[in-house]
Write a structure and sequence with these properties.
This protein is α+β, with helices and mostly antiparallel strands. Helices cover 33% and strands 26% of the residues. The radius of gyration is 22 Å and the shape is globular.
Length: 413
């Protein structure tokens, strides 16, 4: 068999924070490993990574023992350390999770227990104690989570890219248009500029397009990405909020609800809601991509999900269409806010994996194929957890590279 000339050992598709953390982990775990990262945008972190509220999550929300719980708790501490080491703006602020209705109190108490199971220190607060932290916030009870923080994830991604030493190709040279994966020869990707890049193993960290990339390799991901747009506002009177304030989330959904976040640069972000996007990169209602929308509508899970959660979805759509309704949602936490205090801010799109039966995947999802590792569900708190996620993906990729080398040299494994 003709010898293949590989351009790299590991090809990573996706220049968001998870793809770049994987490249960073690969070159640190196995120095000398040749890594190429392909990113179709002109720079890193242009989608989920660069369009979120910048929160370093504590891990309190996530089911004990899940990847989200383990990686978020570990990742939060590592992210603070990484930011300090690489000079990225960050701060450990703590946050409040506030119950504003009596029916939310059992869920708030369950979060206290979950936090303790996940090893996260929490402090329970009554109404008077809430105002000690946030004078303008009102609630029946709250918990204070001291390990939550904020940072600039775009800057983190840039530092990961630089420190990884990987060959990172942006723009047309980083957009995969065709993938030829052969178990006995490796992976070849043709990019939009006509170049062909060959690697021994492919890592798919394509976020909003990860299921499409998996299918291009010939693997069946058994899920589809259904994009949800999160719409944000900036608070014109940022003095109303000192730090981070969250509602009690509904455990039936992977969304945290409209919250208030004082960012690393001093402004206060309000949002997001969660509405269906009409394109994978549909950051506005005017962005419609018929092929992508048709793909979402053809997936049976989309219809099962819609039938199961239509009431929740209707409320989110109402808040998207009506600034007054969005303001009412914010007033549950911050009664002083007025519609004029909310200034539109750039939206984000969440890449939510949905199974055929309509189940919204609620944990990180990593699957493997021949010479491939696919990250198929990595929405929030993936930025927080990116360093441990990157190590896990790198471990699997290096195992695949090692297996390929063992077979090539006739070594039994």
């Amino acid at each position: 068999m003709k010898k293949v000339a590989y351009d790299c050992d590991v090809l990573v598709i996706g220049g968001g924070i998870v793809g770049l953390a994987t490249a960073y982990a690969l070159t640190r775990s196995a120095p000398g490993t040749r890594v190429t990262v392909l990113e179709k945008e002109p720079g890193p972190a242009r989608h989920q990574t660069g369009r979120n509220s910048g929160v370093i999550h504590s891990g309190i929300y996530y089911r004990p023992g899940s990847l989200k719980a383990r990686y978020a708790v570990r990742g939060a501490a590592e992210m603070v350390k990484f930011c300090a080491e690489y000079g990225v703006a960050h701060e450990v602020t703590g946050k409040l999770i506030v119950a504003t209705e009596r029916e939310e109190l059992p869920r708030l108490h369950a979060l206290v227990q979950r936090g303790r199971e996940n090893g996260i220190p929490v402090r329970e607060l009554g109404p008077a104690q809430i105002t000690e932290y946030e004078p303008e916030v009102r609630g029946l009870a709250a918990i204070h989570v001291g390990t939550t923080g904020i940072c600039d994830y775009g800057a983190v991604a840039q530092r990961l890219a630089e420190a990884s030493g990987a060959d990172i190709r942006y723009g047309a040279g980083g957009e995969a248009v065709h993938i030829d994966r052969r178990a006995d020869r490796g992976v070849a990707i043709r990019t939009a500029d006509g170049a062909v890049v060959r690697g021994r193993v492919l890592v798919n960290c394509a976020g909003l397009h990860c299921d499409e990339i998996a299918r291009l390799t010939g693997d069946d991901p058994a899920m589809r990405i259904v994009p949800f747009r999160g719409e944000y506002f900036d608070l014109a009177r940022p003095e109303l909020v000192r730090g981070l304030v969250y509602p009690v989330p509904d455990p039936a959904f992977p969304f945290l609800g409209v919250h208030l976040t004082r960012g690393i640069h001093g402004g206060v972000h309000v949002g997001p809601n969660a509405v269906p996007a009409l394109a994978r990169e549909g950051y506005d209602w005017s962005v419609v991509r018929p092929r992508e929308l048709a793909g979402t509508l053809r997936w049976p899970g989309s219809w099962h999900m819609a039938r199961r959660h239509w009431r929740y979805g209707a409320g989110e759509l109402r808040r998207s269409a009506s600034k007054s309704a969005f303001t009412d949602a914010v007033r549950r936490l911050l009664p002083a806010v007025e519609p004029g205090d909310l200034v539109p801010s750039p939206a984000g799109v969440r890449a939510q994996a949905v199974l055929r039966d309509g189940t919204l995947v609620d944990d990180f999802l990593i699957r493997e194929g021949a010479r491939t590792v696919h990250v198929l569900n990595a929405p929030s708190p993936a930025a927080t957890a990116s360093l441990p996620i990157g190590r896990e993906v790198a471990r699997r990729a290096l195992a695949a590279v090692g297996a390929v080398g063992a077979v090539r040299h006739g070594v039994a494994r």
